From TrEMBL:
It comes from the Bacteria. InterPro entries: CHP02284, DUF2383, Ferritin-like, Ferritin-like_SF. SUPFAM superfamilies: Ferritin-like. NCBIfam families: PA2169 family four-helix-bundle protein. Residues 6-112 form the DUF2383 domain. This is DUF2383 domain-containing protein. Pfam families: DUF2383. It comes from Fulvivirga imtechensis AK7.
C-alpha cells in the first residue's frame, strides 16, 4: 500500500471509530441535547469518510473504512466505564474528547504525508471541524460540572 493510501486509510479508520464511538456515546449519555449533538457528529464523520473515499476514487484507489482494534476496545471500555461510573455523562464526554484528540494526531500525520494538495486541504478542513468538536466537548464538560457533576 502506498504511503498516500495508508495515510488516508488511517484517517478513514479513525473516522469509522469516531462514528461508532459517537453512536455509543449517544446511547449512553443522559442529556438529550448532548445525545442529538453526538448523533450529528457521527453523521459528520460519515460525511468525512465519503468525501475522502470519493477523493481517492478519483485517484483510482478504492479504500474501505474498518475501524481500528484500539477503537473497538476504546468503545467497549467506555461502555463498561459508563455502566459503573456515578458521573456517566462526564466520563462519556471525556472519552469522546480522548478519541477526538487521537483523530487530530492521525489527521496531522496524513496532512504531513505525501498526499496531493487538494486532499491536504480537505484533511485540514476536516481537522478544523474535529478541533471544533473538542471545544464543544469541553463546553459540555463545563456545563455538566457546573451542575455538580450530575446528569443534566
Amino acid at each position: 500500500m502506498s504511503s498516500e493510501k495508508k495515510a488516508i486509510k488511517d484517517v478513514l479508520d479513525i473516522c469509522h471509530d469516531g462514528i461508532k464511538g459517537y453512536e455509543q456515546a449517544a446511547k449512553d449519555i443522559h442529556n438529550e441535547e448532548f445525545r442529538t449533538i453526538f448523533n450529528r457528529l457521527a453523521q459528520q464523520r460519515k460525511l468525512f469518510i465519503e468525501e475522502l473515499k470519493n477523493d481517492m476514487r478519483d485517484r483510482g484507489a478504492e479504500l474501505e473504512d474498518t475501524g481500528t482494534i484500539k477503537g473497538y476496545f476504546h468503545r467497549n471500555w467506555l461502555d463498561l466505564k459508563a455502566k459503573f461510573s456515578e458521573k456517566e455523562d462526564t466520563v462519556i464526554i471525556d472519552e469522546a474528547r480522548t478519541g477526538e484528540k487521537e483523530a487530530l494526531e492521525v489527521y496531522e500525520k496524513a496532512i504531513n504525508s505525501d498526499v496531493p494538495r487538494y486532499i491536504k486541504d480537505r484533511l485540514e478542513q476536516q481537522k478544523r471541524l474535529i478541533a471544533g468538536a473538542i471545544e464543544q466537548l469541553n463546553e459540555f464538560e463545563r456545563e455538566v460540572t457546573a451542575h455538580h457533576g450530575s446528569s443534566i
